[in-house]
Amino acid sequence: xxxxxxxxxxxxxxxxxxxxxxxxxxxxxxxxxxxxxxxxxxxxxxxxxxxxxxxxxxxxxxxxxxxxxxxxxxxxxxxxxxxxxxxxxxxxxxxxxxxxxxxxxxxxxxxxxxxxxxxxxxxxxxxxxxxxxxxxxxxxxxxxxxxxxxxxx
Length: 153
Ligand code: FES
What we know:
- This is (2Fe-2S)-binding protein.
- One of its GO terms (molecular function) is 2 iron, 2 sulfur cluster binding.
- Keywords: 2Fe-2S, Iron, Iron-sulfur, Metal-binding, Oxidoreductase.
- Residues 4-80 form the 2Fe-2S ferredoxin-type domain.
- The chain is α+β, with helices and mostly antiparallel strands.
- It has two domains: 4-79, Roll (Ubiquitin-like (UB roll)); 88-152, DNA polymerase, domain 1, CATH 1.10.150.
- It has helices spanning 25-32, 88-95, 105-117, 124-130, 141-152; strands at residues 4-10, 13-19, 51-54, 57-60, 73-75.
- The chain has a five-stranded mixed β-sheet with strand order 2-1-5-3-4, covered by helices on one side.
- β1 (4-10) and β2 form a beta hairpin.
- It starts with a strand and ends with a helix.
- The mean pLDDT is 97.
- The structure holds FE2/S2 (inorganic) cluster.
- FE2/S2 (inorganic) cluster (FES) binds at residues 40-43, 45-50, 60, 62.
């Protein structure tokens, strides 16, 4: 495949890259940019482990071709903390034990931040509905909801 030029920002840093058109945003982040915080679970839009923000909107990065993100601004789990200071959602996940194995956690946290930002954190039911695309096989759901509710308050 011929590589296509791609200019985008990741965690506020500009990148000028050359990318094969078949490469997903997820693989670009993990393999080309070595940002391995974003996880690959299913690679076909069913688990939410690969969730990132594209221009502030949550996206399953396994379903987005990298070249579709020309000029976009991507935020990954690595871009949430402010230096050594955790994002409030990261701190709340730790406080409430919002994970066990941790594999789904980056995606859960990116969705959780979007949940509040988009105004879908007004009740446990609403949070559960918004977060339903993020699968946790350890079953940390109640603690994840507690974490989101605390940050919302
Ligand atoms: Fe993208 Fe599962 S890896 S949704």
